[in-house]
Amino acid sequence: MQRVFSGIQPSGVPTLGNYLGAIRNWVPMQDQHECLFCIVDLHAITQFQEPAQLLAQTREMAATLLACGLSPEKCVLFVQSHVPAHAELGWIFNCVARLGWLNRMTQFKDKAGKDREAASSGLYVYPNLMAADILAYKATSVPVGDDQRQHLELANDIAQKFNHDYGTDFFPRIEPFIQGVAARVMSLRDGTKKMSKSDPSDQSRINLNDDADTIALKIRRARTDAEPLPGHLAGLEGRAEARNLVGILAAVTGTLPENVLREHEGQGFGAFKEVLTEALVAHLAPIRKEMLRLLEDEPALDAALRRGAERAEAIANPILAEAKRLVGFLPRR
Ligand code: ATP
Ligand code: MG
Questions:
Q1: Which residues carry a binding-site annotation for L-tryptophan?
Q2: What are the binding positions for ATP in this chain (predicted)?
Q3: Which positions ≥6 away from 178 have C-beta within 8 Å?
Q4: Whether complex ipTM tops 0.90
Q5: Is any atom of ligand 1 closer than 6 Å to the C-beta of 196?
Q6: Which of 17, 65, 81, 291 could form a disulfide bond with 195, CB atoms 3.0-4.6 angstroms apart?
């Protein structure tokens, strides 16, 4: 049995991208592995969050994850800031990672935008904290979307350098598990940008709590081109938006993009979008309903997160203690 760690930021309502690229794949893992799923609020504040919203979004995220099928009996579901080991190990890793490594991270460049000088230093060292999230549990399997591949490589560089500098083999190698069709869902407004819950445009994404009318409207407005659908994948070359919508339909109906194209060859986007809307609504409506139900009982949600944090701490604290000993910190006696 492997130990699996994955995180999601409470930086907004989870999107279809989060669902297809991450959450949906987490559900079956609970039955096969020891899984830790973390709502990473420390990461979320690398970009300013309104405090009241952050709090609400953290509960909303917990409710959504449960609604999607994570079970507090089968996995450890918790909030990052409830377990101080993340921040502590993250600091140690700030001192292990090299500036040159961080300078290569494309997500920082994307998220910082043009005014890089105005980005928070937290955003810059985000990958170090992500390495700590994983290694505080010595997790070896990390299911993430394709957008996190570069950060995982960096986490391995950090683990290796720590081991080398402190003459140990304490931290294991991390393996990404990047899975499935539509491993990267793109923005509905720009097929070259990934769908993100923190994108300023709500029209760029499907949120897991969007109702049927909202989904229909967003899909109707989704950018496309004027050509009909081709019969095979090669015909989607250079048509990022078309490819994205085909990928989404394939993912929610559990088939391959090739099959979607075979079935819809020659169809225009007007008709295709209706099919897509119907499939999305059928898939997402039960999740939305369960999420709203869970949000009605905040004490029960908070209690589930508390139990998760206790279980997470029981694993992370001894690992953190050993990392500190290796670094040479005087133990508190
Ligand atoms: P933010 O915009 O705040 O970074 P996000 O939508 O990128 O939010 P994260 O919390 O950063 O979401 O990532 C949670 C998980 O969702 C990660 O495993 C990430 O790889 C995956 N993920 C995020 N966006 C997509 C996407 N567009 N397609 C597929 N997977 C995605
Ligand atoms: Mg992200």
A1: 133
A2: 9-11, 17-18, 145-147, 185, 194-198
A3: 143, 144, 145, 146, 149
A4: yes
A5: yes
A6: 17
